[in-house]
Amino acid sequence: MTSPMANPNGSIFKRCGCRDPETRRQLGNSCPKLRRRNGIWSSHHGTWHYRVDLPPSADGRRQEARRSGLPSHDAASDEIRNIQDLVAIPGSDSHGVGQIRDLILDAIKAGDPLPDPAVVKERYRRRADLNPQITVGEWLYTWLAGRRTIRRSTREGYEVSIRMHLVPFIGDIRLDQLTIGHLDDMFDRIDIRNETIRRIRAGKDPERREMFKGQKVTSDAYKQRIRATLRAALNHGIRIGLITFNPAAWVELPSGKRPKALLWTKERVARWRATGEVPSPVMVWTPAQTGAFLDLAEARNDRYYELYHLIAHRGLRRGEACGVHWTDLDLDEGSLTVRWQITQYGADTEMGAPKSDAGDRQISLDADTVTVLRHRRARQNAHRLSHGAHWADNGLVFTEPNGSPLIPDEVTKHFKELVAAAGLPPIRLHDLRHGAATLALAAGADIKAVQELLGHASIAITADTYAHILPELAREIAEGVARLIPRQKSARTIKE
């Protein structure tokens, strides 16, 4: 019997599970069926094995790598070449040699593929862990715990993406084995879930609809946020040497563009009254509709009237309006400095800086808004006197009657109730801010001025959201002007 095939640092041979009929011992590589009559290995019997020497252990004992059950001689040769490349990485570094040896033996013992020598070489160069067994889920939570300088709202957004989407779909995959294919599968499964939710909502089975009550379709924009979370976490993994490739940077997704703002024209209002259809997630009132809302709030002496007026005229975010301090106002000069915002986190609120650096800004106030804010001061002084020692003096402009800060979600809830009472087409409280921007553009402000008014970090955000609504608003204003000019019907109009 010919001896196993020679190799510079090991041997490749075949074995099978056949047993001697008398002793019942396995024949191993001595089974006659393993070779043809000419001594060549049979292609129909047995599987390929290899054995290769590794650097000895620290105490000088011989170390050997063995793998069995390989499908071909070439597969065995490839693994031996991988082992040779891995062993060559640390050179004469005895500690590195031991790490590489353990890396090879651990992979073979676990039945895993051998690590990629190029990846291991890069990790070795960075002095990073050569055998990171951490899963995607473990890494995401480790990464999130280390983000100490991000805003609370940003952290909570990351946490939701990780808990609701990334961990359920790819959390069990080893971090260094994550591929673009895994991410494609994840987003395909999200799309399938979206279709299931849409189909059940449109169906006639009340029990199934109840099962999916409260579950939301994952929008294209939110898919982009999921990917952004993963991409940030993987980029940090690359920086510290855990991985060398970021598949999240290459996965293809729909753009997730922000919805365009639409004006509540007469035709759209009529359609909404007939069918309940709201044509866009972002809807903007006409000047007349905004005025009708503010008239109702003022007539009712509504507790939030002045706040709604400020948002409608100057476009503050909800949290920014709730966080305005008297020291931020100069009513004599007609100016407001936006320095604070109250952010809602579930049942909790937190006073903090504006959403971005651009959010920290100074804006001018019109005379009507100054008058409204002076009225607000008088109303607050009356509340302070009525509550006496129980008044909470925190310097805020908009407060509850006892002086405590407003709860932003309550402001939003009350806004919806007022809109319904006014019989106006629905908008979100945030859309009142959109309306202020649109009115500023219609009044002649350029896009850059509106960007600064709103505190947008990029002028592209302002242009993308508002620019295309101007023709509609211009037509609405033009029709309003025409209605104000009294005319007698011409003979041509009468004839028609």
UniProtKB/TrEMBL annotation:
<keyword id="KW-0229">DNA integration</keyword>
<dbReference type="GO" id="GO:0015074">
    <property type="term" value="P:DNA integration"/>
</dbReference>
<feature type="region of interest" description="Disordered">
    <location>
        <begin position="52"/>
        <end position="76"/>
    </location>
</feature>
<dbReference type="InterPro" id="IPR050090">
    <property type="entry name" value="Tyrosine_recombinase_XerCD"/>
</dbReference>
<dbReference type="Pfam" id="PF14659">
    <property type="entry name" value="Phage_int_SAM_3"/>
</dbReference>
<dbReference type="InterPro" id="IPR013762">
    <property type="entry name" value="Integrase-like_cat_sf"/>
</dbReference>
<dbReference type="Pfam" id="PF00589">
    <property type="entry name" value="Phage_integrase"/>
</dbReference>
<dbReference type="InterPro" id="IPR004107">
    <property type="entry name" value="Integrase_SAM-like_N"/>
</dbReference>
<keyword id="KW-0233">DNA recombination</keyword>
<dbReference type="InterPro" id="IPR002104">
    <property type="entry name" value="Integrase_catalytic"/>
</dbReference>
<keyword id="KW-0238">DNA-binding</keyword>
<dbReference type="GO" id="GO:0006310">
    <property type="term" value="P:DNA recombination"/>
</dbReference>
<dbReference type="InterPro" id="IPR011010">
    <property type="entry name" value="DNA_brk_join_enz"/>
</dbReference>
<feature type="domain" description="Tyr recombinase">
    <location>
        <begin position="280"/>
        <end position="479"/>
    </location>
</feature>
<dbReference type="GO" id="GO:0003677">
    <property type="term" value="F:DNA binding"/>
</dbReference>
<protein>
    <submittedName>
        <fullName>Site-specific recombinase XerD</fullName>
    </submittedName>
</protein>
<dbReference type="InterPro" id="IPR010998">
    <property type="entry name" value="Integrase_recombinase_N"/>
</dbReference>
